[in-house]
């Protein structure tokens, strides 16, 4: 394994990047963030991505990993969340390769963040099945089995009680409906009950911004698997994307 890879996290409001020390999972230099252009078309985003990468004096062989807000199959975006719909059907890897002149590996953003928790964070050295769930505008998910990522699980879109799960159990739903913590926790309980029946995880890691307040709702959940807050916070997408890129090109 090389000492470093470069991670990019492309979101609806910002495009963030940093070189990552692959031994420790820490940033090897301060992160750079540039606002996501609007409209966030492939051409416009690619130009900003190039600006972010060019801020760093990277060895030409350093690979670039990209955490992208979409279902990703073989480098191609099959959906678009908080980014222009022109990305659907676009080969994201080829777009970023052309913009940066580097080897590129693209993954779903929740997958990148979840894998970072397994490689360096709250699920490090945990064998078996790890489920990482991010609670925010929606519900993101990453499933890792014995250190191998199962991509694009999209558990937030499970239909539970006749509705899309994230429409009732995401943190945005809690804020939108002004739910107290016990009421929201009951909705989370229902979501995790279904997830546990499907996957029987050995550990559940809960991330997203609301995980900073984990003591207000995680103890209210009654699950078979241990449930813990995420450790890497907003760095997880960059770190996971960099790690997966390095592994991809070994």
Tell me what you see in this structure.
The structure is a single chain. This protein is an alpha/beta fold. The protein is built from seven helices and 14 strands. It is globular and about 50 Å long.
Strand arrangement, major sheet: 3-2-1-4-7
**What value does the Rg take, in angstroms?**
18 Å
Please write the string of helix (H) and strand (E) elements: EEEHEEEHEHEEEEEHHHEEH
Compute the number of strand runs.
Answer: 14
Strand percentage, roughly? 15-25%
Structural shape: globular
Low-confidence stretches: none
Helix-strand makeup class: alpha/beta
Helicity, as a percent range: 25-40%
The end-to-end distance, rounded to whole angstroms, is 7 Å
| Largest sheet geometry | 5 strands, mixed
Question: Residue-averaged pLDDT, rounded?
Answer: 96
Number of helices: 7
Task: Write the SSE topology.
Elements: E1 4-10, E2 14-21, E3 32-35, H1 42-54, E4 64-68, E5 72-73, E6 76-77, H2 92-100, E7 104-108, H3 109-119, E8 129-135, E9 139-145, E10 148-150, E11 159-160, E12 163-164, H4 165-169, H5 171-176, H6 181-199, E13 203-207, E14 227-229, H7 236-248
Parallel strand pairs: 1-4, 4-7, 8-13, 13-14
Antiparallel strand pairs: 1-2, 2-3, 5-6, 8-9, 9-10, 11-12
Helix pairs in contact: 1-2, 3-7
């Amino acid at each position: 394994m090389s000492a470093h890879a470069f991670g990019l996290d492309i979101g609806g409001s910002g495009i963030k990047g940093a070189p990552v020390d692959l031994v420790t999972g820490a940033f090897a230099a301060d992160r750079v963030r540039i606002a996501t252009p609007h409209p966030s078309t492939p051409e416009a985003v690619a130009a900003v991505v190039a600006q972010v990468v060019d801020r760093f004096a990277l060895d030409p062989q350093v690979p670039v990993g990209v955490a992208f807000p979409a279902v990703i199959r073989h480098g191609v975006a099959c959906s678009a969340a908080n980014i222009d719909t022109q990305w659907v059907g676009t080969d994201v890897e080829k777009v970023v390769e052309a913009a940066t002149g580097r080897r590129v590996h693209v993954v779903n953003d929740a997958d990148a963040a979840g894998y970072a928790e397994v490689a360096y964070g709250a699920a490090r050295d945990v064998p078996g099945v790890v489920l990482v769930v991010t609670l925010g505008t929606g519900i993101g998910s990453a499933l890792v089995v014995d250190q191998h990522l199962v991509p694009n699980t999209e558990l937030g879109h499970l239909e539970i009680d006749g509705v899309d799960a994230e429409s009732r159990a995401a943190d945005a739903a809690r804020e939108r409906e002004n739910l107290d913590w016990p009421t929201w926790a009951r909705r989370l309980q229902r979501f995790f009950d279904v997830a546990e029946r499907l996957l029987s995880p050995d550990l559940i890691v809960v991330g997203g911004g609301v995980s900073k307040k984990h003591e207000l709702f995680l103890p209210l959940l009654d699950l078979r698997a241990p449930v813990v807050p995420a450790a890497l916070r907003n760095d997880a997408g960059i770190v996971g994307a960099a790690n997966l890129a390095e592994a991809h090109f070994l």
